[in-house]
Design a protein that fits this description.
about 300 residues, inorganic pyrophosphatase (n-terminal core), 2 domains, five-stranded parallel beta sheet, binds manganese (II) ion
């Protein structure tokens, strides 16, 4: 059922033990939104615990209270009366569902989220789930501490490429401005997010050398194979380095995850890549989307190029 923001606030107010979660391969918006909500719920005397079923990327380890995030263990249960699911659908959370049978309250900004099987607040015009979290916490009357504001700002800044993408609206910038009034330090956050270890930098250098052009230069792609994926902690941001190539309409990065799991990231200048990702079993936004292929890298690349061939 689709909810209003006020109804979301009411559901949270009447819950006592809340499990907060977001998608695997967590990014700034996933971690920023879960941390901000968890900290705010505790202000209201709630028991709130974040579970994310994945490793956390080192470039976000400056976020406050990150060390309190748990990863579900085999057979583990968590006593909750509500799951607050942020920035994704339940299918993209790994084994979170096995922790509890509690009902799901879903807050998201992904246009591809059609989840009607649970309570959903969806605002596809929001640049980030953190932008919605900001409104929700205002609705709930939470106190915007520097920690909460830092988490929210990080989610908005990372999901908009630091206010560069088309998803950036006047409201996005007004929200960011209000967060700066809560003592957020934008220079500190951008330095932390963009910081790379020398290892990652060298990995990115090697990955860039795999750049291939397709469809007469309209598509640029990078492949991060098993060997390369083992050297680097993150290839976050690498896709933006090839997206800027003149005449490139779509940029992609294929990353080795496991023997039969290959992650695809897509970025575009105009083409609706959410639609392409959806065809491939994933989802996302019009200009930033992705999916996971349950095949090896070569097969994933073949399937992707075949699908892209329908557009070029
Ligand atoms: Mn997001």
């Amino acid at each position: 059922m689709k909810l209003t923001l006020k109804e979301v606030a009411n559901k949270l107010n009447s819950a006592e033990k809340i499990l907060v979660t977001a998608h695997v391969s967590p990014d700034g918006d996933a971690l920023g939104s879960t941390l901000a909500m968890c900290l705010a719920l505790r202000q209201f005397g709630k028991t709130a615990q974040i579970f994310i079923d994945d490793k956390l990327p080192p470039y976000l380890n400056f976020l406050p209270h990150l060390d309190e995030i748990k990863r579900p263990q085999e057979g583990e249960k968590f006593d909750a009366d509500l799951i607050l699911l942020l920035d994704t659908v339940i299918d993209r959370t790994g084994n979170i569902r096995s922790l509890t049978d509690a009902p799901i309250l879903n807050v998201d900004h992904h246009v591809t989220n059609t989840g009607t099987e649970n309570d959903l607040y969806l605002e596809p015009n929001a640049a980030a789930t953190c932008e919605i979290v900001f409104d929700l916490l205002k609705e709930m009357g939470a106190t915007f501490t520097k920690e909460i504001a830092t988490c929210i700002y990080t989610g908005i800044a990372t999901d908009t490429g630091f206010f560069k993408y088309q998803s950036t609206t006047p409201k996005t910038l007004r929200t960011a401005a209000e967060l700066l009034e809560c003592d957020v330090e934008p220079n500190y956050i951008s330095e932390q997010v963009e910081r790379r270890t020398l290892n990652d930098f060298i990995g990115i250098k090697h990955a860039l050398q795999t750049t291939e052009m397709f469809f007469g230069g309209k598509v640029a792609g990078i492949v991060v194979d098993e060997q390369l994926s083992k050297i680097v902690d993150t290839t976050e941001g690498i896709i933006d380095l090839i997206r800027v190539i003149e005449d490139v309409e779509i940029a992609f990065v294929l990353t080795y995850k496991e023997e039969n799991a290959t992650k695809l990231s897509l970025r575009s200048k105009n083409v609706n890549v959410a639609e392409i990702a959806k065809k491939l079993g994933g989802g996302g936004h019009i200009r930033a989307a992705g999916c996971t292929f349950h095949t090896n890298l070569d097969e994933a690349k073949e399937t992707l190029l075949k699908t892209l061939g329908e557009y070029f």
